[in-house]
Amino acid sequence: MEIEVITSITTTMHPNQIVTQMEKVNRLVSQKPVVIFSLSSCCMCHTVKRLFFDLGVNVDVHELDEEPEGREMQRDLGKLIGCSCPVPLVFIGGRLIGSTDTVMSLHLGGNLVQLLREAGGLWL
Q1: Phi/psi of residue 109, each to 5°?
Q2: Which residue, 44, 57, 65, 107, is most buried by CB atoms nearer than 10 A?
Q3: For the chain, percent helix, then strand, then coil, each to nearest 5?
Q4: What are the chain's domains?
Q5: What is the pLDDT of residues 40-60, one digit of tens each?
Q6: To 5 degrees, how large is the angle CA 20–CA 21–CA 25?
């Protein structure tokens, strides 16, 4: 089964803003093998985080509603990926994987664990 992994982000933002937002996101996602942008009150975010925790993955979670610049980051992530509610947003190995539907498809298809291993996010 082949799953399409999102590897590029398109937007209609001003080019200078794109670089700024991409730098911010790239800095955060390059620091850990698995990064999730989340909202603490979002049930879909909870489901995705729980899946990774149950798999034994040490996830770097950014709860946007608990961070000082979280609202702006949520807005910017939404603009970057072209949707109004960009959470949960999962990065594995610095690559944008997507949201709940993509993560669950990868998991059910047996491909999520391999991605996690390749990124160094899973040691089993």
Answers
A1: -85, -5
A2: 57
A3: 50, 15, 40
A4: 15-119 (3.40.30.10)
A5: 999 999 999 999 999 999 999
A6: 120
d(CA 68, CA 124): 35
Both tokens of 26, joined, read: 């790239």
The one-letter amino acid at 88:
P
Within 8 A by CB and 6+ apart from 62, the residues are 28, 35, 36, 37, 38, 70, 73
Confidence grade of residue 8 (pLDDT, cut at 50, 70, 90): very low
Rg from Cα positions in the chain: 14
Judge contact between 45 and 36, C-beta under 8 A.
Answer: yes
What count of other Cβ atoms lies within 10 Å of the Cβ of residue 87? 23
Any idea which residue has 């998991």 for tokens?
107
The closest of 122, 119, 4, 124 to 52, measured between CA atoms, is 122
For 100-117, give one letter per residue: b (16+ CB within 10 A) or e. bebbbebbeeeebeebbe
Mean predicted confidence (pLDDT) in 80-97: 89
